[in-house]
Amino acid sequence: MTTQLITKSALALFSYILIITLSLPTWAADSSPKTLNVRGHIYMITGQGGNIGVSSGEDGLFLIDDQYAPATPTILRSLKKLHPNKPRYVINTHWHGDHTGGNENFAREGSVVVAHKNVRTRMSQEQLIKLFRRKVPASPEAALPIITFTQSLSLFLNGEEAEVVHMPHAHTDGDAIVFFKKSNVVHMGDIYFAGTFPFIDTSSGGHIDGMISAVSMVLQRSNPQTLIIPGHGKLSDTKTLEDYLNMLKAARQAVANSMTQNQTLEQVQQQRPLAELAKVWGKGFIKEAAFTQIIYDSLSQ
Ligand SMILES: [Zn+2]
Prior knowledge:
Elements lengths: L1 H22 L10 E6 L2 E5 L5 E6 L2 E5 L7 H9 L8 E3 L5 H4 L2 H6 L3 E5 H8 L2 E3 L4 E3 L10 E3 L2 E6 L2 E8 L7 E6 L4 E3 L20 H13 L6 E3 L6 E2 H21 L6 H7 L3 H7 L6 H13 L1
Parallel strand pairs: 4-5, 5-6, 6-9, 13-14
Antiparallel strand pairs: 1-2, 2-3, 3-4, 7-8, 10-11, 11-12, 12-13, 14-15
Helix pairs in contact: 6-7, 7-10
Bound molecules: zinc ion.
Zinc ion binds next to loops.
């Protein structure tokens, strides 16, 4: 009985550590915000959570994503160096807390939060992220986007059009990509994890095929001078985005091939269809087995 109990609690502790490990992104190691000038009046702020895109110019500031709530004061200090005013708008690329956690704080500072309507819907209710077995409570009213869209919208600020375009069923079912047309800069949110396997939230309507379509669409709209801000990872160009697209296609094909005889997830994972790709792409937050599961879950739907 005692041994059983110990085994049980050891198992519980192990799965707890596993969940924590899976939930803690590797970029948490260096959490101090850093501001990088991408091009002209477009900046990227790294730190705790997803990369923030910033447009700073004659009309003021607007942000793409706002990381976690505790990071807001340091983000505001970084922004102060770019512009004396508080941000007018915050666009959320999707609902995950490492991109929307600062919404309530920024709304209090006077920012208008804008997102796809599914972002507001998901943030309004408790969510379960299946891969991490993690429940996320509903957000308070003050954190919710107050302007929503279904297909696209444009902000005409700082001398150019920023086109915010919905990509269906990619990382989630509420993703937006922002195209700065004149600056030739794109913010892709978590549709793009630079240099690593991506997390795809299949329990929030994400799908490997939507990821592939969205990345292909961005490449079609780009040219060799385009600069790309990923949700996580380093600032990129189209060459590195093309490598990422090829990886997504190869990984999808490899898992699909392993699934031909109606195998279980465990059987597919044992076959290790992503073993080769993992040598290059499996060193980030999402490892080989988790990415195999993500593609398996997508293709089983
Ligand atoms: Zn995400």
